[in-house]
Design a protein that fits this description.
The protein is an alpha/beta fold. The chain folds into 2 domains: 122 residues, Nucleotidyltransferase, domain 5 (2-Layer Sandwich); 164 residues, Nucleotidyltransferase, domain 5 (2-Layer Sandwich). The protein is built from 9 helices and 12 strands. The strands form 3 sheets. A 5-stranded mixed beta sheet has the order 3-2-1-4-7, with helices on both faces. Belongs to the ROK (NagC/XylR) family. InterPro entries: ATPase_NBD (IPR043129), ROK (IPR000600), ROK_cs (IPR049874).
Length: 319
């Protein structure tokens, strides 16, 4: 038995066949034509499915999971990724289901990309064996997902745990989501680089102004770069503390490109969390790095499929 997995983001569309232990049996990938019309985007997905379905293990396909940049609507099976303009309420589940080599009876399980990361970390990573967890992706945006009572908690539309759009600054800057002072606007990699530049930091010649470059400067002792990470950590801590207080958690897992800064992010994050999570049941919740950086979206899509319930048995046609 294998699970099919798709991981669709703004730069790549990846697919895999994954065994029940979380090992990738086969993998395929195409660039995301993010600025092309809807059918060109679907063509890239189809090309990935074509390649996977030519692998011998496809004959053992049992379920399929799709991780996609959001927002997603799991009930409707549609996606409207902010960073893929050609898809708005696009019926991705039905289009994948309609692939000519898709076995009868399979309805793909759809999850947001951060929820997929959460499923992967709960299955094989830093949240393994934990009943209640928040898993976060801190990158060009900030997303998250929840495990509650030992199960992935996605909410009715599949967007539960989207911590990036908790407001932590009531008078903060407007966010593209329509809110104000959101965690994402203060703590994403984009926000870290912008804050450092506005405060007078400049990247080394020939180096792009990225959060990674700011982290390098912070490690080298640049006070402005350190302050940019400190502010991001404060915003993250406020959102995390609110989530811990609301649902009670055993662990918080932080992944994504910004988390690669290591203690440049985690040290101030843990310090600020101590200032915000002060109630007894919320205090001292561990904050740890994600363990599954490589192919976490694919592993998470497979995990979501695995926990979506048994595949319906197709009815025989009436005679």
């Amino acid at each position: 038995m294998v699970y099919g997995a798709l991981d669709i983001g703004g730069t790549k569309i990846a697919g895999a066949l994954v065994d029940p232990e979380g090992r990738l049996v086969a993998r395929a990938q195409r660039p995301t034509p993010a600025h092309e019309p809807a059918e060109a985007l679907m063509g890239a997905v189809t090309a990935v499915l074509d390649e996977l379905s030519a692998h011998p293990a496809w004959a053992s396909l049992d379920r399929v999971g799709i991780a996609c940049a959001g927002p997603v609507d799991t009930a409707a099976g549609t996606v409207s990724p902010v960073n893929i303009a050609g898809w708005r309420a696009f019926p991705l589940v039905e289009r994948v289901r309609a692939h000519p080599r898709m076995p009868a009876g399979i309805r793909p399980a759809l999850v947001g990309d951060a929820v997929a990361m959460t499923a992967a970390e709960h299955w094989l990573g830093a949240a393994r064996g934990v009943d209640n967890a928040l898993c976060m992706v801190v990158s060009t945006g900030v997303g998250g997902g929840l495990v509650l009572g030992g199960r992935l908690h996605t909410g009715p539309s599949g967007n539960a745990g989207h911590i990036g759009h908790i407001s932590v600054d009531l008078d903060g800057e407007p966010c593209p989501c329509g809110g104000r002072g959101c965690v994402e606007g203060l703590a994403s990699g984009t926000a870290i680089a912008a804050r450092a530049l506005a405060a007078g930091w400049t990247p080394p010649p020939g180096t792009a102004a990225t959060a990674a470059a700011v982290a390098d400067a912070a490690r080298a002792g640049d006070a402005t770069a350190r302050a940019a990470y400190d502010r991001a950590a404060q915003a993250l801590a406020a959102g995390i503390a609110a989530t811990i207080t609301l649902v009670e958690l055993d662990v918080v897992v932080v992944g994504g490109g910004v988390a690669q800064a290591g203690d440049t992010l985690f040290a101030p994050l843990r310090r600020w969390l101590g200032a915000y999570a002060v109630l007894g049941f919320a205090r001292d919740v561990p904050v740890v790095p994600a363990e599954l950086a490589l192919d976490a979206g694919l592993i998470g899509a497979a995990a979501a499929a695995a926990h979506a319930g048994p595949r319906p048995v197709p009815h025989a046609p009436a005679s």
